[in-house]
Each structure stands twice: as C-alpha cells, then as structure tokens.
C-alpha cells in the first residue's frame, strides 16, 4: 500500500544517507458547514486521513521503529474534537484551525511533546535538527 511504500522509502533514505527522519501525521480535517456538493468530499477526506494515520502508526511500529532512522511524531489524536456528524467521529479541534486547511501555531505544544517522547523513548537526536 501507499503508506508502506512511503515508510520504506523514508527508511531507505535514512539508511543510505545516515539521516534521522521525523514523520508527521496528517492533521484531522476541520469542521465546516455542509455546502452543496462539498460535504461528501470532506467526509471522504476525513476517512482517508484516519486510514493514513492509522496505517502510518502501524507501519512505523512494525518496520523496526527507531532503529531504522525514522520517527513518527504522533500528536494527531491530541488535535481531535468529537463530532457525531463526522463519519470518523471527530474533526480538528477549533483551537488548532487556522483557515480550514492549515493548522495554527497552537498545535506546536503537541508537536513539542511528541518530540520529547521521541527523545525519551527512542533516543531521537535533537542536535541533528
């Protein structure tokens, strides 16, 4: 699948070039009012984002983890807000929404915490950043 190829390509790059690669999840899709013809597309994106992130977590966990030079900074679940109208049961928490497409800087605390976990749990080397 695409996620497996993505992770394997990252591992190959990390190995060949002695790199540390930090992978980021895809942020949840923001809530928007239903508009004619667009609600179905948004629902599909939400489902695909959930699938991508779940497969990315799984693939990173089963591909040797930190021993291969790649690290998943997994903060995506911290950005969720429950929403019963969403097919996946959540949307992007409004506190992190910049413009319905991008995250604002409020998410940086979660990114920093994920980086801290990476350092503590896997020995991610911050001096390489």
Architecture overview:
It contains three helices and four strands, in the order αβαβββα. The chain has helices at residues 2-16, 39-62, 108-122, and strands at 21-23, 70-72, 80-82, 90-92. The strands form two sheets. Strands 1-2 form a two-stranded parallel ribbon. It is globular, with a radius of gyration of 16 Å.
Précis, in short:
The protein is mostly helical and about 130 residues long.
Distance between the termini: 29 Å
Per DSSP, what share of the residues sits in E-state strands of 2 or more residues? 5-15%
Quickly give the structural class. Answer: mainly alpha
Radius of gyration, rounded? 16 Å
Which bin fits the share of residues in helices?
40-55%
Strand line-up across the major sheet: 1-2
- Looking at how many chains there are and whether they match, the oligomeric state comes to single chain
**How many helices?**
3
Task: Chart the SSEs and their pairings.
Elements: H1 2-16, E1 21-23, H2 39-62, E2 70-72, E3 80-82, E4 90-92, H3 108-122
Features of this protein?
129 residues, mainly alpha, two-stranded antiparallel sheet, 3 helices, 4 strands, 42% helix, 9% strand, globular
């Amino acid at each position: 699948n695409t996620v497996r190829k993505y992770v394997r390509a990252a591992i190959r790059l990390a190995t060949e070039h002695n790199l540390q690669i930090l992978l980021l999840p895809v942020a949840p899709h923001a809530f928007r009012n239903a508009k004619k013809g667009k609600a179905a597309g948004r629902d599909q994106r939400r489902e695909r984002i959930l699938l991508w992130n779940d497969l990315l977590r799984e693939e990173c966990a089963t591909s040797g983890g930190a021993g291969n030079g790649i690290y998943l900074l997994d903060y995506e679940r911290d950005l969720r807000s429950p929403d019963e109208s969403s097919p996946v049961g959540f949307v992007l928490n409004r506190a992190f929404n910049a413009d319905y497409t991008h995250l604002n800087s409020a998410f940086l605390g979660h990114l920093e915490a994920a980086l801290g976990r990476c350092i503590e749990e896997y020995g991610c080397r911050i001096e390489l950043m």
